[in-house]
Amino acid sequence: MTDHLDDVWISRDYPVLREVTRRIDAGDIHVHQSVIAEATGLDPDEVERAAAALDRRGLVTLAADMGPVRFTEVSGAAYLITGLHPDADDALSRLVQVLQQAAERTGDEDERSRLRRAADGLLGVSRDVMTGVLTAYLSGQLPH
Fold this sequence. Notes:
This protein is mainly α. The chain is 63% helix and 7% strand.
C-alpha cells in the first residue's frame, strides 16, 4: 500500500499563491514572505515552504538573492487557478447562463426561442469541443 503525504495545497500553498497573485496583479513588485505570512495567517517558515513548492511547479518566480523569500512574478496559470482569469469551463458556463437569463428577460417570443436554442445548442455540443474553442478565443488564437 502506498502512503500519501498530507495535502498542503488547501492549507498552505493555495492561500500563498492566491495572496501573491492578488498583490502582484495590484502592482506590487517584490512581495516579501512576512507580508504574505501576515495576510494569510501562516508562519513565515510555512510561507517559505509554500514558495519553494510553488516555484517548483512554475507558478511563481522568486528573487534570486539569499535571505527572506520575495515573490517577483506569477505565471499565467496562477491567474487561472486563483480565478483572476476565467478558464474555458467557467466561460462556457457563464455564456450559457447569460443566454438563459436573456431569454427570460426578453418580451419577444421569437427572440426568447432563439436565445434558448442557442443555449441548448452550446450545451449539446461536446463540452471538450466548446472549451477548446473558448480557450482558443480567450487566448487570442482565433481570428476576430
